[in-house]
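User: Structure please.
Assistant: Input sequence and predicted structure:
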Amino acid sequence: MNALSKGIRKVEVALRWDPSPAGAPPADLDVVAGTYPADDPYGGPSYVVHFDSRSPDGTIYLNRDSRDGKGFGYDEVMTLELERLDARYARVVVGVVIQQRSGRRTFDGVTNPGLRIREGYTVLAEDGFDGVPAATAATVAEFVRDGTGAWEFRPGVHGFEGDPATFTGVMGAARRP
């Protein structure tokens, strides 16, 4: 970013998927976001925003929630107002979790999953989860404050193949090269 850049300010993370075939249990994907404090940016999250919550200050919230992928376009949408997030937070990690109510389901068992991350009308990233077919969850974005306090976007889809219930506790851990 150059000296005139204000960094990333307000971001929309959107998920889409097609409904399950007739007779199959519905697929339910959820966008989640964890905030990490400046004094421990790779430790546990200060809080996690998911389908039944929003951030305490209202800066991260779910606009749309789907339990079955039925609908047109993007089925689930989360907004992150990074420019309003308190300075004590240095990182925000966004992930996608597949609910496991009807048995183990991975991204290759979800019909036509897709992800779009944008700021305003500018698309920052798009992905179809093809790189993580055996995962039950994945981190899809990381937003980090730079030395000036501006937010920068770090793209990348990283799969998680363990129990999705533990995903939010480890999704912000440092990645091994």
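Helices lie at 164-170.
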